[in-house]
Amino acid sequence: MDRTNTPCGLDVALTVIGGKWKPLILYHVQSGPTRFSEIRRRVGGISEKILIQQLRDLVKLKVLLRHDHHCVPPVVDYALTPFGETLVKALAPLCAWGTANRDVVGSMVASASSATERGI
Amino acid sequence: MDRTNTPCGLDVALTVIGGKWKPLILYHVQSGPTRFSEIRRRVGGISEKILIQQLRDLVKLKVLLRHDHHCVPPVVDYALTPFGETLVKALAPLCAWGTANRDVVGSMVASASSATERGI
DNA sequence: GCTAGAACCTACTAAAAGGTAAGTGTGAGA
DNA sequence: TCTCACACTTACCTTTTAGTAGGTTCTAGC
């Protein structure tokens, strides 16, 4: 899915934060370096496989920095890069919008799906 | 995919603008009421089925307003609602971020995929 | 010795999203 | 009459994304 060649920058942004869990990961990592297991606990409901996959994606995109402490048992933490911080800053208004409109959107999603379930 | 019950508002926002084409649709509609065929031409590369699906989603979420002129051959246009405009405003910084970082992200996506293609 | 926890990996499966190709009814222009 | 454009709909297929269930290597604690 190459969405990096359109007039609208949102496509670029969505290649970075698209997916079910990436925004949540970013949200829970912005407070500072966070360990893998800590992210998993905070996010909740995510499988390890998916979490690793998404973290790797974000590292490849240079949004997150992976810091392996090279000890046994393993200790690894993830933190925002400066680039990642610019992204999080750009994300803030959208996050606020979502928070302000959670109930509105939630009820509309619910009514839309119940309507289609009833075949309307 | 219910993402409307998390501490982070981004999930709410992504239920609205998630998907391959929605941001692009929003982008091309923000200038004023736009006809279906005009949106299709502007977006480019989208199939009619998907465009209709996405437009319907956005109408259900009360982000867009569908105006059917009830004439034959059919004339229908889509415009942002006031609610949709608050969303577009919240989206602006992210859009700017994407535009500013298109080349950076694009090259990183490219190098990441070529790396995996080579089995690295 | 046995278990738990750390941070992963691998195969397989399920669900969601997107895409293709066809068809609908109508009227204006060639 | 024939075709085109309009705004869709339907059935079917492919791709992408997410989830499940197992395994690995190592150490500390019981």
Automatic annotation (TrEMBL), chains A, B:
Q: Identify the residues that the record assigns to the HTH hxlR-type domain, covering every copy.
A: 8-106
**Do you know which Pfam families this protein is assigned to?**
HxlR
Q: Which domain of life is it from?
A: Bacteria
Write down the InterPro entries for this protein, in alphabetical order.
HTH_HxlR, WH-like_DNA-bd_sf, WH_DNA-bd_sf
- PROSITE patterns in the cross-refs: HTH_HXLR
Q: Which UniProt keywords apply?
A: DNA-binding, Transcription, Transcription regulation
Full protein name: Helix-turn-helix transcriptional regulator
